[in-house]
Amino acid sequence: MKEKELRSQSGYIIFIAGLLLIIVPALTLLRVVPILALILGLAGLFMIIGLTVINPNEAAVATFFGDYEGTMKQNGLRWVNPLFRRRKISLRARNLNGQKLKVNDKMGNPIEIAAVVVWRVNDTAKALFEVDDYVKFVDIQSEAAVRHLASSYAYDNIEDEQASITLRDGSGKINEMLEKELNERITQAGVEVVEARISHLSYAPEIAGAMLQRQQATAVVAARKQIVEGAVGMVEMALARLSEKEIVHLDEERKAAMVSNLLVVLCGEKSVSPVVNTGTLYN
To answer: Using one digit for the tens of pLDDT, what is the confidence trace for 164-178?
Structure first.
């Protein structure tokens, strides 16, 4: 079922006419022709019953004995067939602050994850007639989408395994995929997701300490690797410049000793104390 527009009339003139049909006969004809006064009063009341006030970003869905007649979205005081049943529905954007969920990620690690979803109704007919409670439907489907997303990707990259996408990805791809999956899940309820973002992400308390140590170890290894690569480059440059300038001629054994000493100096965590050799190089 798709939404269709229901044309309605401005209700101000009808409101005044209905009041006149109730008040004027009651003051003039009630004693003379009471039946006519009663009929005119009922007609005025019938006209007033058809009035509906529609606020901005609000709609009224009209049904007639179970048949969907259409949706009124014109703001202000509107009038339709008084026999229509009207149900108002908000078209404003709404926030869903999801609760923290405990899920296993792709690697089997228990994590805690939560998301914030901004959504609104874009098809009033589907929202009211395709699902039992569209607000609860969005809540449940949002939780299901977050659980599915969390179990489909790893929390973070393993030491030697560079995954293309992780839950901690800072590029926004995870949020984009969450928004896409949510729209696919709740489109049948006439709802669209304006924005969806991961609001909380962490390892579960029982493994948080171990994972923190792993992350620290990974950072240390990466830093040492970069230091070693830089030191090797500096040693290579030093040997090349010494050979190019012909400052000193070193055999292979002395080159090896020089490389060893330079690597110790460059890769050491603490500053070294130099030892000055006052004798010959070959002693």
So the answer is: 688 887 668 899 999
